[in-house]
Amino acid sequence: MDRDEAVRLLEQVAAGSLTPGEALDRFATAPYDALVHSLVDTHRALRTGDPEVVYAAGKTTQQVLDNVEALRRSAGRVLVTRCSEEVAAALGSTGRTVLVGPAPAPRGLVAVLAAGTSDGPVAEEAALTAQAFGAAVERVDDVGVAGLHRLLAARPVLDRADVVIVVAGMEGALPSVVGGLVGTPLIAVPTSIGYGAAFGGLAALLGMLNSCAPGVTVVNIDNGFGAGVFAARVARRVGAP
Amino acid sequence: MDRDEAVRLLEQVAAGSLTPGEALDRFATAPYDALVHSLVDTHRALRTGDPEVVYAAGKTTQQVLDNVEALRRSAGRVLVTRCSEEVAAALGSTGRTVLVGPAPAPRGLVAVLAAGTSDGPVAEEAALTAQAFGAAVERVDDVGVAGLHRLLAARPVLDRADVVIVVAGMEGALPSVVGGLVGTPLIAVPTSIGYGAAFGGLAALLGMLNSCAPGVTVVNIDNGFGAGVFAARVARRVGAP
Amino acid sequence: MDRDEAVRLLEQVAAGSLTPGEALDRFATAPYDALVHSLVDTHRALRTGDPEVVYAAGKTTQQVLDNVEALRRSAGRVLVTRCSEEVAAALGSTGRTVLVGPAPAPRGLVAVLAAGTSDGPVAEEAALTAQAFGAAVERVDDVGVAGLHRLLAARPVLDRADVVIVVAGMEGALPSVVGGLVGTPLIAVPTSIGYGAAFGGLAALLGMLNSCAPGVTVVNIDNGFGAGVFAARVARRVGAP
Amino acid sequence: MDRDEAVRLLEQVAAGSLTPGEALDRFATAPYDALVHSLVDTHRALRTGDPEVVYAAGKTTQQVLDNVEALRRSAGRVLVTRCSEEVAAALGSTGRTVLVGPAPAPRGLVAVLAAGTSDGPVAEEAALTAQAFGAAVERVDDVGVAGLHRLLAARPVLDRADVVIVVAGMEGALPSVVGGLVGTPLIAVPTSIGYGAAFGGLAALLGMLNSCAPGVTVVNIDNGFGAGVFAARVARRVGAP
Amino acid sequence: MDRDEAVRLLEQVAAGSLTPGEALDRFATAPYDALVHSLVDTHRALRTGDPEVVYAAGKTTQQVLDNVEALRRSAGRVLVTRCSEEVAAALGSTGRTVLVGPAPAPRGLVAVLAAGTSDGPVAEEAALTAQAFGAAVERVDDVGVAGLHRLLAARPVLDRADVVIVVAGMEGALPSVVGGLVGTPLIAVPTSIGYGAAFGGLAALLGMLNSCAPGVTVVNIDNGFGAGVFAARVARRVGAP
Amino acid sequence: MDRDEAVRLLEQVAAGSLTPGEALDRFATAPYDALVHSLVDTHRALRTGDPEVVYAAGKTTQQVLDNVEALRRSAGRVLVTRCSEEVAAALGSTGRTVLVGPAPAPRGLVAVLAAGTSDGPVAEEAALTAQAFGAAVERVDDVGVAGLHRLLAARPVLDRADVVIVVAGMEGALPSVVGGLVGTPLIAVPTSIGYGAAFGGLAALLGMLNSCAPGVTVVNIDNGFGAGVFAARVARRVGAP
Amino acid sequence: MDRDEAVRLLEQVAAGSLTPGEALDRFATAPYDALVHSLVDTHRALRTGDPEVVYAAGKTTQQVLDNVEALRRSAGRVLVTRCSEEVAAALGSTGRTVLVGPAPAPRGLVAVLAAGTSDGPVAEEAALTAQAFGAAVERVDDVGVAGLHRLLAARPVLDRADVVIVVAGMEGALPSVVGGLVGTPLIAVPTSIGYGAAFGGLAALLGMLNSCAPGVTVVNIDNGFGAGVFAARVARRVGAP
Amino acid sequence: MDRDEAVRLLEQVAAGSLTPGEALDRFATAPYDALVHSLVDTHRALRTGDPEVVYAAGKTTQQVLDNVEALRRSAGRVLVTRCSEEVAAALGSTGRTVLVGPAPAPRGLVAVLAAGTSDGPVAEEAALTAQAFGAAVERVDDVGVAGLHRLLAARPVLDRADVVIVVAGMEGALPSVVGGLVGTPLIAVPTSIGYGAAFGGLAALLGMLNSCAPGVTVVNIDNGFGAGVFAARVARRVGAP
């Protein structure tokens, strides 16, 4: 039951061809999603402007291309994450994350810091996602805690940002140090970089969850996408006119 | 070496009583924290208005009172977390979290949802922390995923909020459901409520980290404080004039 | 917005004092739970006859008694789980699980097997829960896999039952053996009985999840309650007239 | 020693050609499985109509075909699970689960819900297994908790079903939400879908075991087969004439 | 149905007062454990001489005494494990393991080595159990791998023994070193001695399971009882006349 | 310094060409392994007749062949474990474990039970190892706990054996059931067979460590070799003339 | 057999009252530890000056006092670790670690840094142990990574030290930051400070093991003692004249 | 802002062309890393002589070669770790670790012991790293705890060394035994050698962390590089003139 049907039903009530009791029964026995639809409508509206997203891992290149084609018609832009080299090439890119279509006009600023070069692809996923979801992004790479001078040199970017994403593998200590320098909301992204007792990112994840710096939140291992969505939502609100 | 000392040093250079080389040596051999101080000063300023915090767990009642007394002199307010009943009583409260002194004028709105009654103390810690750090807070309790109507009834609060904190133990599913309803930045707090394979909050933590709703970030188990600080930082920025 | 309000609204439409469009807006902006209420109503009806449940762990004796008193007014019966000795005594019982009020007339049969004497309280929780939720129950205790003759002696009970609950700690092997004997739906309950590498019931839980007997399902460690609810639901359906 | 042999033995006793003591010795020294056979016979009878099952993982295509051929002679139908694409093609199918031969006449109804498209193959395994074991099946796909309207739209199927299977990966929250909507017996199947802290399905498994909805039981990660067998056993009993 | 009843049944067949078919039905419908009884009888005979065992943990002193009293009547001896100080005192002992009644005449020799003084109670449980189950025992304490000379001094005992039990906590390295010195069957018992990353005996358990010395088997953490039973079974066989 | 050198040294003392003090210095400064050699000599003698062992995993076919060739010269037989198909073929075998050279004359009997067909290669490793280390072996395959009649049919073999090896994956319940039937020393071998929450054999390992049957010892996951060595050592001692 | 006995034996050979063969037999059958004694002698000499150590946890106050009394006679000093308040008081101290007797003259310098006040007792254990084992110690407390200026202020101490111990709980990030500042050998000590996903020190332990700063080694959780012994050994060697 | 710039700035102050206040502002607004540079300068100097390091895992051969080429220009030597066979060949080596350029003149001695042949590559990484970082190295291979005579034969090397690295997989017991023999600082390196419950090196790691020998420190699984850097730092300090 969509809005039109509901109006028709009420018009029958107005016309007297349906009693209020009969109308209520019709509402009550209508397919659930009709009723629920109105509930979630507002929400859907809020999302306007968000890109459609295709998670490319486990899909063939053709499947990804078909998905992108289909979605791009309905949405202005499609973000493709976890691309293989082949998929990226087919989309005319070299990265693991590809935005098909133009990014929306940015509001607010997200800073994305990465601890090591190996953390780059996850930082790129976070950055491109934040852009695709409507925020401006500045990136700073290779900011390991074992080289404090590089981190301190990034302070101006941190100070400008409305929200900071910190990407790190191994022991995942960078968010704690950054969190001690700035009062900006900070999202930590553990990566699976490391070996042995890194346990595929578990060490970094636990480190970030136990950060001694207050106000650090964490997403799943390698989940640059989730951090980017969250950060863009914060940045857009802060930067809203 | 504070700013005054640095000026004096440079004045000596200007006066010719110190050569540039001698001045540089003085700078270089000054206590490190003098130099670093200026680096972190801006940051400290940003924090203005933040309460001092006392973590009461593992301290005697007298130690907590002494801490509170000492800090209140320098800061307008002191937030005391993880209070025993005895400590709370000594601070004139009955809660596990106590704010001594007035909350600052609020900017922005934080919604705090709790899944079960047992999650209440953690939700209270998050809420009181967010208030102490400068945000307005609205709470909704007992919003379990197994009773969707209560959750849907909370939608107006969710729609009003600048940022949402969702507190849940056991399987920690609530953030996923809330995250599917709203596009507001959402911070999930797993609690240690549950038994057996809940493993002291591990099940809820893993559930939240793997949320299928995009844009959910997570803090440590029972860490209402961290979620409150983060949320207040977002809310204050969004609500800034 | 409850049913009466909805009827009034529709009567206004019928009376022409409200246009269909206006009425729809009123529906759309009504508190969410009004709309949702109808959605979940059917479900609530299905539950009729289910007892109210009080989880006594972590509550004072007085809190439990107050809960029981309040709930008993609205429901015919109250099931109290995880009682301390003091709580049980206050309820006039000696067990860890207490049913206040009469059990409903039983439909279908649940067999509850326990591997060791230490598994008894969890088996009792499962059995009393199944009875409180409307099934008949037969119990067989001390049916360890290391004493096959006792297990085989329980075959007639297993054959009679509509659904079987098997409670076991340590290595949790009993469900596999029982599952090899009968084709009855079988719910396995791991208990925290054991020490060392039993890891608080983890060994039994993993054992049951990996059972080589097909058709074994599992609940949380020590969760006799959950097994009892599930089993009663199956038994009532099978035993429905 | 089968029934015929036992009768012959007793006839010799009756004829006096064997003393009671000699007969007893013959019974006592008979192969153990003769004696046990009678114990398990009833059970075997109960199983009548169940398909034979071939677990194809780790077998060559030829081995699977040979198995299927051999079993189909003795049983009316053979269920082949965990097929590679090559095995499926050789069996004339494209799915990961293949039923060779006709399904039995169905009794009772199993609803199979899947949270995401990636959970599809496990849901298919559960559904086809339930059919092969004698139940009717209705499937609903893509019912994520982050899109409540799709779930609520599935309510009529849930209401019709005698037992519900819910398949979900990542945080595995779907069973909790479904369990809050219906009082039908519910079997949760965690899948290995996800990455990072999903730990190969562990997050979903723990989430389901700790479900706040009462009456949820769980099977091993990706174990659609086990859920299907269990569900069919329940459905057949409920639907028995 | 015991042997006498079976004979009577067969005599009725011989006398013609029961047809073979009737007799078979009687056999088939006899309580299962009657049939199974004969299956396990041989086994029970093998156990002759084994003590009854009372696991005292979680029982009141009176319960333990009642158990001991009851069992001692039927068995010549009762082994009580995991005694509290109070239970031990009531049994006239000071140890955590108490044998009530005389040990059987020993056959074969079990050597019990303990790495540290804290491992003593587990070693004592193993030693007293082996004696109660019929083996002679020699103990060597404080044989840490960090003090090789003490270990090497124990070589004569190791050479004499038919089977060796090695008890160690912390890193659990002792079995590997002992296993490199002798070709005697070696049972390793990890203890929960240690702290931090000892994880309650997990480190020792994993160490022993991965021993580079071939022919080392392992029991549960702190399971001196299990090691003692196994070792006595080996020793009695080796020492059998 | 071997025995001959030591004798020569002492002869020089006897001949007066070396003072006692000088001799002692020579002993003290001799390479450590000379002194130690005598310590371990007895042990080496005990080992006489044991095969040399080559662990083929991670070696090229040529490396394995070279190893086997070199060792066979010094030892009568070489046991090669964890062979790839190519290595096995090069050794003229099809199994994962290959004994090059004749097995020694057997003493004592080892029974090797395997729960499922997939556990076969580990059971084969255990059996061939026990033979290579000097014991007779009888195997019984496909003895799952979900099919008790097959297990009970194996009782005569169990009764004959001096020591029993039980190989099982998944939930690893078989050793508990076998341990309840016989009083023979029992070594449990968990295998990595299973999926999901089997966690590569962890479930079976924990199950076996927590067996409710007394006197069960355990080896590492898939460690048929270790179980075979241990069992042969027991069997040879029991079967020694 | 000590050196004197060995000389006497060789004198008998020289005197002809013992043949070389007889002497060798006597050597070979001497208690093993006689032979081994000489092997380990050098080592023991190296240890000269090391204190005896009493691990007080799990001992009664009287047992600790008796141990201290007995050891102090033979050694100049006794280090008592893991003291309860009562034990400390009985030893005339208030700390958890107590050195009875004077510390040896120090050689080399150990710097001990602690991240938080709660890490103090472990830092104290490390510091007092290093002193008791012969090194000078300088401590710097409250050097969290979230407050870089305090850490940088500690640089002069770090520069002076021959070896650095860094004690930290929660995420354990401090060693990485310190390791990036100095090239001094650095030992990291994780503490059990923290809650929730700190898992009793596991997060800090994993963090330290995965440190991105090269040259960081780690000890067990809360193991200040082990770090102190290791550091003193390094410092004494560096500071040796 | 480097030293030259700072001097120029101060000269302007001296010349009066810049007021002290203006100069201070310039200092304060200079890029952070200028100020920080002086902080870390001393440190950098300390490192003089350290090789540059290329972690080859995950890089193409060409990338490694480019890295090596670029770094070799600035540094005298480049250490390449985790080489594939192809990378090693391109560097003219066959090992997994390659030092391009001459090792520095050694100071102090590092002993590297490896338990098994499979531990060789990690031991090689440790040894070559220690040499590249300026220490002399002696290696002893195949020193398993199950063959004590080989270990004791290595005592002279252990006695000579300033610091000892012990590399072992499986149960990781070797450091405990070595630590009982010598008082030399000892670094334990767990390797991922083993299978089943070795859990990729976890068993060895836990074993080493819980070593009963005092003064053992540990690095990450397979982290020969970290152990080598640490050991060289100790050795160079001990061996400094």
Task: Tell me what the structure shows.
The structure is a homooctamer of 241-residue chains. Chain A is α/β, with parallel strands linked by helices and 241 residues long. The first copy, chain A, folds into 3 domains: 1-30; 32-100; 109-238, Rossmann fold (3-Layer(aba) Sandwich). The first copy, chain A, has 11 helices and 8 strands. Chain A has helices at residues 3-14, 20-29, 32-47, 61-74, 85-90, 120-132, 148-153, 155-160, 174-181, 202-209, 224-238, and strands at residues 52-55, 78-81, 98-100, 109-114, 136-140, 163-168, 186-190, 216-218. In chain A, the strands form 2 sheets. Chain A has a 5-stranded parallel sheet with strand order 5-4-6-7-8, sandwiched between helices. In chain A, helix 1 (3-14) packs antiparallel against helix 2 (20-29) and helix 6 (120-132) runs parallel beside helix 11 (224-238). The A-B interface holds A 39-40, 42-43, 46-47, 50, 53, 152, 155, 159, 162-163, 181-187, 205, 209-210, 214-221, 225-227, 229-230, 233-234, 237-238, 240 and B 39-40, 42-43, 46-47, 50, 53, 152, 155, 159, 162-163, 181-187, 205, 209-210, 214-221, 225-227, 229-230, 233-234, 237-238, 240.
Which series of helices and strands of chain A comes N to C? HHHEHEHEEHEHHEHEHEH
CATH architectural name of the largest domain in chain A:
3-Layer(aba) Sandwich
- Helical/strand content category of chain A: alpha/beta
Average pLDDT reading of chain A: 86
Annotation keywords:
Rossmann fold; 5-stranded parallel β-sheet; elongated; homooctamer; 8 strands; 3 domains; 11 helices; alpha/beta; 241 residues; 3-stranded mixed β-sheet
